Amino acid sequence: MANLLITGSKGFIGSHAVKQAHKYGHEVLSAFDWVERNKISEVFHIFPVDAVMHFGAISSTTETDIEKIMYQNYDFSVWLSKLCNDLKIHFQWSSSASIYGLGTDFEETARPDPKTPYAWSKYLFERFTTHYSWRIPVQGFRYFNVYGDDGEEHKGDQASPYFKFKKQALETGIIKVFENSHEYFRDFIHIDTLLETQFKFLNTRKSGIWNIGTGTPKSFLQVAEEVAEKYNAQIEIIPMPDNLKNSYQKYTCADLTKLNKTLSTICIN
Question: CA within 20 to 30 Å of 36's CA: 104, 142, 170, 222, which one?
């Protein structure tokens, strides 16, 4: 069992991690919504924290305030990871498949191609973790498109298409999808599957960056059709907003070779 400190505890993934930790034999000693440095430092010196699961970040891919993104996604992550290193505390953090940009090679060693300030902040922290001298396990996970059955209400435009389409179907009976959505594929992974994988990594001291996805992409139109059939809704095609056209990924599919190889070596007590 690991005693955990979790950041981003009010966010979609972080809140689920807090709820599910006990299921995997872990205890959440403390959970923070965001960058409360003094309070986090106090927790480390009062409680026997074994591992940090760092989910806290500005997750909006359309956020344009670069200073804000760099402070919260990069500067705070550097501070927290170094503190964990000093105190010899296992450190996990959430990266993003947006680092792959518009490319089609989704192996962890592929050339990065970040297109947004958010993606750049994630890539720069990844780069920091690969060059720093660590005494602890440091594990980063490139999340593909995460969705869930609840907890996405606060995400607004950043909510998964599963959530948005369901909401539209229930409220209006009409699901709106961008034009050419049959050509846009994503690797959608359920929050429970993602967290099951990440909790397993608390049982290994290996460090690195891993993809977390399913390896099976699905088009936005396929998702819309599934939801429409389930809730007896209609589908309406709408234009794609101009602010998305230059950074909108056409295809994502996690290469799980490295992940599966690592998982095969992890012994769960």
Answer: 142
